[in-house]
From TrEMBL:
Pfam families: MATH_2. This is MATH domain-containing protein. SMART domains: MATH. The lineage of its organism: Eukaryota, Viridiplantae, Streptophyta, Embryophyta, Tracheophyta. It comes from Buddleja alternifolia. Residues 22-161, 183-224 form the MATH domain.
Length: 275
């Protein structure tokens, strides 16, 4: 059964036949059926360079289950994160790229090519690093020997990527909430409390949820206290009165020693310019 190109423009996708191989990357898969047999739902290629960025091809041999696709192969282009960041772009930046994805017809040495009809290309950024085609090709068309896409259980995909715009989008912030947050406790033993002369005493730093924390005590109190976005300190300027703290019957200060404990639960982390 020959490939149907009678409606090349369909659902925002332009399909065509090309006798020119992809300029930037080819992905050959041998024993393609073993992906399904071994329940491999997603195969990700190695990196390739195009337009000054790194990319990958992602193949869902039995369709992208997250999109409810079961009767097509799904094929996507993914912008690769940088070596030291989860984002492939500098903070606040985005790119637009035009791309075509390919499938080799081994019978005629031509390529089925798909590209979307967005004239300005697709926008890749920290929140959206993957674009492609949920329904790249139906399984029935792909497996039909007359079409030449799967020959001796081997197929060849490909990609061309052209970056057409780079721009700065301004600052942003990403709040990542933490499920089942863990409680961290740290106890600080302060000896010779009444002999402390410093205005402020710091504990040894301790770790909680991949962040460093420390406790601070103002033995004589703190007259002024301001909270702001730039102030990483949080607490109570009137935590306990001197009179109550020094009562021997209360037990907060025993033999000039007191114990201060911090309990930290991190429910989320906000990262500036992480979008």
């Amino acid at each position: 059964m020959a490939t149907n190109l009678s409606s090349p423009h369909q659902n925002g996708v332009f399909r065509s036949i090309s006798d020119t191989p992809p300029n930037h990357y080819s992905l050959k898969i041998e024993l393609f059926s073993q992906l399904t047999k071994n329940k491999i739902e997603r195969y990700t290629s190695t990196d390739f360079q195009a337009g000054g960025y790194k990319w990958k091809l992602v193949v869902h041999p039995d369709g992208n289950k997250d999109k409810g696709i079961t009767d097509h192969i799904s094929l996507y282009l993914v912008l690769v994160p940088g070596a030291s960041s989860n984002s492939p772009l500098p903070p606040g930046w985005e790119i637009r790229a035009l791309f075509r994805l390919y499938l080799l017809d081994q019978n005629n040495d031509t390529y089925l090519t798909l590209q979307d009809t967005a004239e300005k290309g697709r926008r890749f950024h920290g929140m959206k690093q993957e674009w492609g085609f949920d329904k790249f090709i139906p399984h029935t068309t792909f497996k039909d020997a007359d079409n030449g896409y799967l020959v001796n259980d081997t197929c060849v995909f490909g990609a061309e990527v052209y970056v057409c715009q780079e721009k700065h989008t301004g600052k942003g912030e990403c709040l990542s909430m933490i499920k089942d947050a863990i409680t961290y406790k740290n106890t600080w033993r302060i000896e010779n409390f009444n002999s402390l002369n410093q205005e402020c005493v710091d504990s040894i730093p301790f770790n909680a949820a991949d962040h460093k924390w420390k406790m601070q005590v103002y033995p004589k109190g703190k007259a002024n206290y301001w909270f702001s976005a730039s102030n990483t300190t949080c607490g109570w300027p009137r935590f306990v009165s001197h009179a109550y703290f020094n009562l021997s019957t209360v037990g907060l200060l025993v033999k000039n020693v007191c114990l201060v404990e911090a309990e930290v639960i991190v429910h989320g982390v906000a990262a500036a310019d992480a979008i």
